[in-house]
Amino acid sequence: MNQPVSSSTPTSQAEWQALATNLTLEGRAYLNGTYRWAANGETFTSVSPIDGRELASIASCDQSDADQAVRAARAAFEAGIWSQLAPAKRKAVLLRFAELIEAHGDELALLETLDMGKPINHARNVDVPATARAIRWTAEAIDKVYGELAPTPHNQIGMISREPMGVVAAIVPWNFPMIMAAWKIAPALATGNSLILKPSEKSPLSAIRLAALAGEAGVPAGVFNVLPGYGHTVGKALALHMDVDCLVFTGSTNVAKQLMIYAGQSNMKRVWLEAGGKSPNIVFADAPDLKKAAAEAASAIAFNQGEVCTAGSRLLVENSIRAEFVKLICEALKTWRPGHPLDPATTCGAIVDQAQLDRIIDYIGIGQSEGARLVEGGQRILENTGGLFVQPTVFDGVNNQMRIASEEIFGPVLSVIGFDTADEAVAIANDSIYGLAAAVWTSNINTAHKVAKALRAGSVWINHYDGGDMTAPFGGFKQSGNGRDKSVHAFDKYTELKATWLVLE
């Protein structure tokens, strides 16, 4: 069992690199309480996007491993070692899990950075605390969510209780490996289910490590399993499995649609999907602080290299201030220059892999061919490092019919679209297959309310971008899915409502 990497978080690139050199990387699946290689013996290699270095061999799980994991999860569920444990005792275990995540924060942050390229400063100070916070908040809510009593005649009692579903399979993306996993792990375990987590093959290391920490915290064998591998092998096997009761997913809209098909082809398992986005960030001329709006718009497209489902990738600006605001955006992006992810001063890291970098570069070319005006960035840089880096990019003169405005790029590419009226802004914003998030910048409370109400998005932020905490649900409209992670609403995804009627004599 790895001990915490350091009792004092490093403050320099050299210190982080020294820790990385001595870090033990686990690549095996975690199944029924133990680490083991895939049944077929196959592996794939985790490659760091920072410099192209091979990090570790990872178990490439498939149908056989899925079957074993489901059997172990089902057996644990039926035995009641977790599902029938008192909620307060489940809470204590999950609170201990959160403590261990914090204690191993340096190690977990390193795994995130080395595996998917995000800046170590963000991994350590955003991802690790958010992961622990999600586990802790949900744990604290376990024994504070009640059932209901139905309105009945005086001689009857109708009780409505939440019952755990059984075996949950969770498939999570590569951009926020720990946070997205925690949003699934916490409510699934809190409500008494057994869980099988399939991390992305692009960033599996932190999920594999979390499994051992969960076991150390007291989660029983079989209750929490991690199967690394590819979506078309072990992911498909879990989605089609007849003994998986619930499937939860965060990722692309195309994969989400396929998972719905698999659920229908198998046992009609419950499916909860948080999918893509092309989120509009709407700036009116009367925004209270244009420099602040520009700074947050820059962050909304450059944070995590733009590899964010809620990225503010469509910037809608009132035409009377558009030229001025584009200049402010370009100035704000100067603080988002790509650099070595292990340097604590770096704000923009490496793109997760070559395929994703190629996709981003292709879209930059598409934007130019469609007639959009490239005003900032647009180039791959730092190629001599062996890493995968691209400049944050701004296109002006974009319209909604252009592919860079309608298709999810998942990279730091911003499309600026002008508008003249609030109605026009709403029409442009809603003219999308997606409906995940949006923001409105205005000093007029009437405008803020009317526009926010009219936007077809699961989250709308006023005069800031990407706000909220664990108390608010997260999910989308339209083809952004029905996810609803976070908050007590997430509990509904992992429970069945049971009505019990007692007729008194």
TrEMBL record:
Keywords: Oxidoreductase
Catalytic residues identified in the record: E274
Protein name stated in the entry: Aldehyde dehydrogenase
Domain spans labelled Aldehyde dehydrogenase: 39-499
Family statement drawn from the similarity comment of this UniProt entry: Belongs to the aldehyde dehydrogenase family.
Gene Ontology terms for molecular function: aldehyde dehydrogenase [NAD(P)+] activity
